[in-house]
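hey so i finally got around to running the thing on that chain from the lab meeting. sorry it took forever, my laptop kept dying and i had to restart like 3 times. anyway pasting the input first so we r on the same page abt which one it is
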Amino acid sequence: MNGILLVDKPSGMSSFDVVKKIKKKFNEKTGHSGILDRFACGLMIIGIGKATKFLSFFENGYKIYQARLVFGYETDTLDISGKVLYKKEYFPSLDEIHNSIKQNFIGKIEQIVPIYSNVKVNGKRLYKYAIANESITLPKRTISISNIEILNYQKNMLEIRVVCSKGTYIRALSRDIARSLNAFATVSYLERLYIYPFSIKAAINLSCISENHIIPIEKVKYITKIDTLEVINGFSN
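ok and heres what got predicted. didnt touch it at all, straight out
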């Protein structure tokens, strides 16, 4: 049994648990094309059997996320599951937010990786430093953001849709947008809507997954033969 599954991960379940459940169901080698935070929901691409070797293609493609940011405080995890570190009841105007996004967060930017993440430093995952309350210099990554669309802004809640490259942390983006405005913000909702070339609309609820939902490896091979320029053009448009 070789192919990929498009799974709609529910909030509250880790990406590892999703992979583990599918591996148990099909009794095959299983992997994924990118972690989603436990509190987040949305599209995951799961590789089964020999199709796992194609997962890097999807991991390297562009992603689309929808997020809700709450201004007024920042947590250690940068989402609502964490402990509040900073408070400031300053809520920037819509114009201020729009201008900051346009000036500072479109194109190639440097992003400091959140300490609550799976990135390894000196052979140890960052979140383990956080749990042990050990200090560590957080690494920086160069990422690309093609577009940030403001969907709604009411009171202290901002909803955005982000088109971005591999390695982008929306939690860190929330932190940085708020701090650029002399404010604090935390992500209260995060959903991955798209992993090139698949939409969340094609994903299946984890409880409903069956063999019939597996995209066969022959189709996966065809998809991954698409010229890399199409991926680049899709990201830049």
